[in-house]
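Subject: for your reference before the review

Hello V.,

The reviewers asked for a structural picture of the protein, and I figured it would be easier to keep everything in one thread rather than splitting it across files. Below is the amino acid sequence we used in the manuscript, unchanged from the supplementary table.
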Amino acid sequence: MIKTRRNSKSTARGRAGNARVARLYLSTAQETFQRYLPRIVRCLGELTEDQIWWRPNAASNSAGNLVLHLCGNIRQWIISGLGGAPDVRRRDAEFAERGPLARRILALRLKETVNEAVHVLRRLPPETLLQVHTIQGFRVTGLYAVFNVTEHFSHHAGQIFYIAKMKGARNLHFTKLPPASKRVDYM
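And here is what came back from the structure prediction:
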């Protein structure tokens, strides 16, 4: 097919649209990390040092283990897998830790890790989302890697919230819906 001026303009608009979608996707992932981070830190503050390392049974993880696990996962998949930093993850150590690592150390590690991941996502070229990467032995697209980590982050954040609510026996008030008259239409 011979390229016409119209075809090349259409292709350029398509590429620009794809880049906008990629930026929106990456921005949404960053917002997800930044929305859950202060909530996790608040939960750590609600728990005593002993409660941070409490496990309901041997098959379950403590809030402290979950924070270490989130740091390892984000570092391996985003900072290393997409950002190119060396992969230094020791996954078994994330679950073997029994504490007491102080809450301020856990919170600082998580903040630093999330901030570094957000930095990687901000500078990530949109085409990286379509490229295939080998991360943790899996061949995945960049799109899958970002989705996997944001889903994983929110999943374990919910477990940490549950532990804080269970041990504190009170509502954390993380969900605040606006009045019906002020709700945003996302369509």
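For the response letter, the relevant points are probably these. The CA atoms of residues 21 and 126 lie 9 Å apart. Residues 17-168 form a domain with the Four Helix Bundle (Hemerythrin (Met), subunit A) fold (CATH 1.20.120.450).

Happy to draft the paragraph if you're swamped.

O.
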